[in-house]
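Incident log, support desk, overnight shift.

02:14 A customer reports that sequence design results differ from what the structure should imply. Their input is reproduced verbatim below. On-call engineer (initials T.W.) acknowledged and began investigating.
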């Protein structure tokens, strides 16, 4: 009997891709068990969700300018907009919230938080921030000057925007496979090390303040980075005396993929894998709204005391005193617990299996996705699904609209709406390398039947694909235009 990572069998299960079977085997750590992987928690508190009618959704969507960011959450049935800050906290985290110490300076909460960060990440100096982009702004404002160049496997949009805001250039250097949605590769998030060396030779070492690796590579499909790749990037950084920073948002999911897919790590705990990975880095930025399992919070960490002191001056200016950094004491305590829970093996097994489950069923329907599925999300290749909609008519955004109309599902475009821009000289729109729609799965929030419902809606969307038309952007406000842009059907 073949196993379904979530338990229930669905029509078409026999047709799983070879790669998918591989994943299932990996999920079970190489030994096929006949038991289902279940949600490793039970539900203590519930939040009702409400179905809307199609005429209502048509009106809500038009009012929102065909931009799901502008919908009211209560008008959404299944919200796959993001996995960021949308997770469910555990009973232990809520208990920790009660223990929060709200002293302005030197609170116990800070020391518990800093100890958790040091024990997992190994960095000595940690500054709490309200979320990831605050850590990014402080890091790049402190280390970058106009004309500098920051290489990354793929910058997330806020990372890119914060680099560009200080007048520096953000360069994406994913491996070639990372740019090909259908190509299977176990570590599609890897950086192209030769391209990194070529970039350093081209712009000169002195113009590169730091090298960054985003784990997992969110904008590249939620794909992991291998330990071998981290070491190879480290070796290049050593040769040119460059600091290496990790964008650590989904570090626990990345650690699980290393354990499942990289030779030599099958018996290593996710915690030990994380510890080794961060030992190759000089610091990290973290949005704890992902693998910190909290609704708000983040941090900036380093082993460089002088740099951390400099960064803390900026932190005081805009976030708060260095022992709270724009958060309440209770938020720090929730993070201290959440960072550890994210490394729990039962949790990670379920987490990665649940994403693979959605990916497998979308594939069975015939929907082209970035293969294999990522850690936190499944990415639909909207350009391949809607070949009749050109990039400048935003196939991803058009697909989002149809998903909402069909079943009240909200997701996000990662394509020309997010990464395109108007060329100031020609007035032409620069398009993105891929037109993706991300279905991000909030942590510990939805059950298997919610995901089965998503698959049913997506099957109907797939059946209607030839009737889905493009959109035109009628209003935008760069940078990060995708949050507020408005569209109309062509
Ligand atoms: N880096 C990566 C890789 C991210 O995915 C995000 C956020 C950030 C940095 C910024 O963190 O939101 O706490 O300021 N990603 C969210 C998403 C928004 O939906 O993927 P933040």
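02:41 Re-run completed on a clean worker. Output:
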């Amino acid at each position: 009997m073949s196993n379904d990572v979530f338990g229930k069998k669905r029509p078409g299960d026999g047709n799983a891709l070879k790669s998918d079977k591989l994943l299932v085997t990996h999920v079970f750590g190489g030994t096929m068990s006949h038991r289902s992987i279940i949600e490793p928690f039970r539900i203590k508190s519930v939040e009702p969700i409400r179905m809307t009618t199609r005429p209502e959704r048509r009106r809500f969507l038009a009012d929102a300018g065909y931009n799901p960011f502008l919908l009211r959450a209560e008008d959404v049935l299944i919200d796959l907009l993001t996995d960021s800050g949308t997770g469910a906290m555990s009973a232990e985290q809520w208990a920790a919230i009660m223990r929060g110490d709200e002293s302005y300076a030197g609170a116990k909460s800070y020391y518990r938080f800093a100890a958790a960060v040091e024990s997992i990440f190994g960095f000595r100096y940690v500054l709490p921030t309200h979320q990831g982009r605050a850590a990014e702004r402080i890091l790049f404002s402190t280390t970058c000057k106009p004309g500098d160049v920051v290489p990354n496997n793929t910058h997330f949009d806020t990372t890119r925007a914060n680099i560009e805001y200080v007048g520096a250039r953000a360069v994406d250097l994913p491996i070639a496979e990372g740019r090909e949605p259908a190509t299977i590769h176990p570590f599609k998030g890897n950086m192209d090390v030769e391209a990194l060396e070529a970039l350093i030779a081209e712009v000169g070492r002195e113009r590169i303040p730091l090298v960054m690796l985003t784990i997992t590579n969110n904008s590249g499909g939620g794909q992991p980075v291998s330990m071998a790749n981290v070491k190879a990037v480290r070796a290049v950084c050593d040769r040119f005396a460059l600091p290496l920073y990790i964008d650590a948002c989904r570090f626990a999911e990345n650690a699980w993929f290393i354990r499942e897919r990289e030779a030599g790590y099958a018996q290593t705990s996710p915690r030990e894998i994380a510890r080794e990975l961060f030992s190759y880095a000089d610091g990290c930025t973290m949005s704890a709204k992902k693998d910190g399992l909290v609704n708000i919070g983040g941090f900036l960490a380093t082993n460089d005391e002088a740099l951390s002191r400099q960064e803390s001056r900026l932190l005081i200016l805009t976030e708060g005193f260095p022992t709270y950094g724009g958060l309440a004491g209770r938020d720090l305590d929730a993070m201290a617990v959440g960072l550890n829970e994210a490394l729990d093996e039962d949790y990670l097994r379920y987490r990665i299996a649940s994403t693979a489950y959605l990916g497998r069923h979308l594939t069975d329907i015939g929907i082209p996705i970035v293969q294999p599925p990522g850690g936190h999300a499944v990415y639909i290749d909207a350009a391949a699904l809607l070949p009749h909609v050109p990039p400048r008519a935003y196939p991803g955004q058009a697909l989002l609209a149809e998903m909402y109309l069909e079943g009240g599902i909200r997701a996000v475009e990662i394509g020309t709406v997010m990464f395109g821009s108007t060329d100031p000289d020609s007035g032409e729109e620069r398009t993105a390398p891929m037109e993706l729609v991300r279905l991000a799965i909030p942590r510990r929030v939805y059950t298997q039947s919610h995901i089965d419902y998503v698959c049913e809606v997506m099957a109907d969307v797939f059946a209607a694909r030839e009737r889905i038309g493009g959109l035109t952007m009628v209003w935008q406000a760069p940078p990060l235009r995708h949050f507020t842009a408005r569209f109309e059907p062509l």
